Amino acid sequence: MSGIIPSLQASGIFQPIIFKIFMESTHDRVRLFLSKVGHREVAEATGIKEERCKTIRYDKRANLRTSELDLMADRYPEYSLWLRTGRINPAQGEISPDYDEANRNLANPNAG
């Protein structure tokens, strides 16, 4: 369900290339983020209760609070752009968990 394509919204000859990661919603991205980073680590880093992180991750009916998104984006600035918009800009250090994982695997081709 995710793919990477250059964003058509970046205009001008000197604009950096910005990529769009296809995800249905901000909540989908936060659920992926919690599954990749871990609800316990996110809870410890943000102060959001671990049970709440589990609820956000596993219950699709749960409403994501703006304050929770802000805490995650502030504590994990490398994922901030992606969490909020679904876009990444690797040249500026703005990536997604999947991009980060793929980059680590390229650096260590025997990683499994």
CATH class of one domain equals Mainly Alpha
CATH topology of one domain: 434 Repressor (Amino-terminal Domain)
Question: Beta-strand percentage?
Answer: 5-15%
Number of E-type strands? 3
Largest sheet: 3 strands, antiparallel
Number of helices: 6
- The CATH superfamily of one domain turns out to be lambda repressor-like DNA-binding domains
Largest sheet: spatial strand order: 1-2-3
Average pLDDT works out at 83
**Secondary-structure element series:** EEHHHHHEH
Shape: globular
Q: Give the structural class.
A: mainly alpha
C-alpha termini separation: 21 Å
Question: Any idea what the radius of gyration is?
Answer: 15 Å
Report the helical percentage: 40-55%
The CATH architecture term of one domain is Orthogonal Bundle
Low-confidence segments: 1-14
Structure overview:
- The protein is mainly alpha-helical.
- The protein has a domain at 26-101: lambda repressor-like DNA-binding domains (434 Repressor (Amino-terminal Domain), Orthogonal Bundle), CATH 1.10.260.40.
- The protein is built from six helices and three strands.
- The protein has a three-stranded antiparallel sheet.
- Helix 1 crosses helix 3 and helix 2 (39-46) packs across helix 3 (50-58).
- The longest helix has 12 residues, at 26-37.
- Mean pLDDT is 83; it is low at 1-14.
